[in-house]
Amino acid sequence: MKADLVVRDLDVLLTMDEARGEGPLGPIPNGAVAFRDETVVWLGPSQEAPEASRVVVAKGEVGLPGLVDAHTHAVWAGSRTDEWEARLRGAAYQDALAKGGGIHSTVTATRAAQPETLTELTTARLRHLAEARGTTTVEVKSGYGLDQATEVAMLKAAREAGIRAGVNVMTTFLGAHVVPKEYANRRDAYVTELVQVHLPAIVGLADFVDVFVDEGAFTVDEGRRILTAAKNLGFGLKIHAEQLTYTGAAQMAAELGAVSADHLEQIDEAGIEAMARHGTSAGLLPGAMLSLRLPSPPVAALREAGVSLFVATDLNPGSSTFYDLLTCASLACLTMGLTVEESLLGITSRAATALGRSDVGRLTVGGKADFVALRPAPGEPATPASILQHVGGTRLTSVVRGAAA
Fold this sequence. Notes:
This protein has 405 residues and is of the alpha/beta class. Helices cover 37% and strands 24% of the residues. The protein has 15 helices and 15 strands. It has an eight-stranded parallel beta sheet with strand order 6-7-8-9-10-11-12-13. Strands 1, 2, 3, 4, 5, 14 and 15 form a seven-stranded mixed beta sheet that branches. It starts with a strand and ends with a strand.
């Protein structure tokens, strides 16, 4: 067998294939991976690697699947730097929202932007995630339009940006982000419009439907109505839950079959038990937690219950301006108590599972050519722990996506 490309002499190749039986990260010391026709055709020790048209020697590096960011809001226009500075001076997130700022200010800017502008902005963000940070699969939410035309434009921009940037994009409709200003005194009318008009209009444009259930956003009953309608139309379900206040939204969404409930700083035992029972993944977002100065989610309780944990950037213009998924994985260890193994699985295979994807986040023979190599900080060993320990010190050296390398 002759491959198109072999990456060899990696100090360790982390396959993230827990079925290998060699530890949760599926490590191969002195590992190599071979690609042909956009597919992984071989994995194993470097001394056994097949011949290839092109060989990359990666001594001193760690190889792993392309990173998977399963929660972003990467489509937006405008800036919220003033809001960020106000929070540094002690203002609360809810204060800006109540005064018509926060998400509402991004809605105003995004509605005013041309579709091509949204696509260009999103393409630049996704290219940065991939080329500088090694993230090759990204979930992108709408939610800064809150009217049918802009929400559709956002979803289209996300998909087109993924093509231009060479990134796998999955799209999520978040029309239920907040109630738009023009419906401030007609909440039920907006929920009805979401169910009867918006959801049918985005069939084929979105993979998932999400709802932000929290203080200043939507209620559990409103969320249940929207998610039930989405489920009946065949969408996967996600939810922003238990971030600023406890609502019971995680339990509700899990019982509806949501693939994930994200944030979870305020979740209770009933919500954790429901997530474990229904196989709903927990999305941990340390960027938002730190930016809003929130307590950590109860990771130990989620772990003990058997809930699958993933880590995401929550990239957005207001409450989590984090582009670097590796940094978020480090922060999840430092601030939330995740182990190295949990954090690395949480930005690869378990994040992929939370998106219903089995073709990314793992390296397996016959799987997609989707691979990155990382060099640790100077003087550090090429180990799983070292690439998380030195925050910002790890350098991306190689990215393989499909036929490109």
